[in-house]
Amino acid sequence: MPRPPFDRVPTVFALSLLVGGCLLVLWPFLTALVWAAILASTSWPGFLWLDRRVGGRRVVAASLMILLVAVVLLGPVAIVALVLADNVAELDRAATALFQNGLPDAPAWLAKLPLVGQSGYDYWQRFAHDGAQLTVELQKLAKPAKDAALVGGRIVGQGVIDIALSIFLAFFFFLHGEALSRRLGIALGRLSRDRASYLLGIARGAVTGVIYGILGTGLAQGILAAMGFAIAGVPGAVLLGLATFFLSVVPVGPPLVWGGAAIWLLQQGEPGWAAFVAAWGFFLVSMADNLIKPFIISRGASLPFAVVFLGMLGGVLAFGVIGAFLGPALLAVGYRLAIEWTAMESPA
């Protein structure tokens, strides 16, 4: 005799309380858990290779893999957190020295722009060759800029903690990856029947394409740009490298950074270093984007620019520094699964 429907209410209520309690406990660590799973998934082939090299000693292989991931991922973020304040102060001194004699004359084409051209030209001319007036104007922005720098420093510091926690959690994903994968496949199989492995493959391809093709390339561009700026003596090299990383999702983003640095060096009477920065940016920073990214993305998932751009910005706003990696990965999975779901044929 079937049980009355109201007899299931206590069971459903108890299960809901259990699930809600588990979520409440894990909620502060949810971001780190998701990122740890992504780290383990995308680096799993390398972990298996390392495991074979150490004779199947899983704990040793997982420890070595975590050490490698920490150096590659946590190292740059920690360096940025340590030197961010110094870089901001260095850029402030460089900007003060640059504008101490005021701005140069406004270009004539500015006045010809429709609507705002003439007002913009007049505003620029107020500070032409008048360093004192320009200093007074810039001082109005000093406090907001310092506040923004402090907030940015706190966000970067929290990002270091989140990434460190995710790397620690990834150790256990490496140890028990096969068992977790089997249980995830069983759970998805009960929800989507025979399409579980196919959907998991789509999700993994999307995450791999984002992590290696977009974020990995952006990280390489940021590091290369910071190295070039440091060699040329550009103030705030690490901060400018961080800007290069975030702007790498924009097609013309990195050239704006290294091109601006080259122009600054030219204005400082350093044409040789300006040419060096321009050549470094064109042949190393931009070529990394043009050569590496298409190759890796073609092996993962080709994603629209808007998905990656909104994923990075929204991820940073939602999760902090770690969101720069987590946001695009989550949106990529959602986008690919949505495309797959809408492309499915309707049942007869």
TrEMBL record:
The keyword Transferase belongs to this UniProt entry's keyword annotation: no
GO CC aspect terms: plasma membrane
Topology with respect to the bilayer: Multi-pass membrane protein
Pfam families: AI-2E_transport (PF01594)
UniProt entry tagged with the keyword Cell membrane: yes
Subcellular location per the Swiss-Prot or TrEMBL entry: Cell membrane
Keywords assigned by UniProt, alphabetized: Cell membrane, Membrane, Transmembrane, Transmembrane helix, Transport
Sequence similarity: Belongs to the autoinducer-2 exporter (AI-2E) (TC 2.A.86) family.
Protein name stated in the entry: AI-2E family transporter
Protein source organism: Denitratisoma oestradiolicum
